[in-house]
Amino acid sequence: MRIHFLLPGLHRVHRGAEVAFEAVATEIAKLGLDEVKLVGSGDPIPDRPYDFQRIGLIPRERFERAPKFPPFRSESIDEEATWVLNALRHYRSRDADITLTCSYPFVNWMLTRWPPGGKRPAHVFVTQNGDWPAYAENSEYKLFRCDGLVCTNPIYFERNEARWPSVLIPNGMNPERFSPGAPVRARFGLPEDRPVVLMVSALIDSKRVLDGMRAVARIPDAELVVAGDGPLRDQFDALGKELMPGRFRRMTLPLAEMPNLYRSADVMLHPTFHESFGNVYAEALAIGVPVVAHDYAVTRWIFGDGYPGLVDAADSDAITAAVSKAIKEGKPDALARAAAGAERFSWRNIARQYRDFLVEVHDRHRAARR
């Protein structure tokens, strides 16, 4: 098959969806059975086993203060629109047998409705950023189409399996990189004499980074480190100066440095109420870092029932208590779970699940066209 992954941020940023697509594409290409191509806005990366096509865009940071109205509901959709305008001129879907994206609305529309009346390859939508395009029937969501749906958590699968040909496949991590190891705090300028609480998150409302800071601020001497960026950066810095001066920092790191940052933390906090999957869960699990997160169906599916760090994240006191407990006694339990987590969420295993589903979708699409 000729498999094309399309996402505006590919090879330019290292958010969860981009990391997932690049990892799955790499592992499928290594099998040597298919022609794999990624289409994004970054530059080609040497020694990757797939082809890459660069299409430019206007980055979302330029749209943070732009007016919001349907379908331009966020700066990420504004960015996507500029990328698609360029892609319509430079990308040829007829060169693919099957396409994948997790970007809606404009990338999905381009791959399922353009050119009008023309023959198009089979299209798979991946719920990396949510499944509402697949089931919502209002506004621009009623124009959603796909030939197959990859659901990244069981809630999405149960909600959509009767609507679209669907499969449940989690995200993952590279166990060769994300594995237990010694902390290297000096590399990041982190203190050796106080506990380090890590949040790996975009600075946006849905991630609840400010709520996490409020909970950590009540733990004496705890150092809060946030690896990420976003429009709440100024509010984060201002709140840190107010609540925990000298005990917080914000940083952005190359992807290759993230395993060492995890190893340097005593606990990872992720207080969002909802994630499509959350690569950070699998990464922290495989490295053996205790995790404190919201207790709901997705995190129970990832960590297992009874995981000690799952709490009601709406309760700030509960977050504080869980983080404090994880700092004092959570490391041995987390390390004991690391090997099983690494095996379950290995990108190699996950990519094989993807390819099996892509074969099914491609064969069904080809039979329908006949």
Automatic annotation (TrEMBL):
SUPFAM superfamilies: UDP-Glycosyltransferase/glycogen phosphorylase. Residues 185-331 form the Glycosyl transferase family domain. Its EC number is 2.4.-.-. The keyword Glycosyltransferase applies. GO terms for molecular function: glycosyltransferase activity. InterPro entries: Glyco_trans_1. Pfam families: Glycos_transf_1. Keywords: Glycosyltransferase, Transferase. PANTHER family: GLYCOSYLTRANSFERASE. This is Glycosyltransferase family 4 protein.
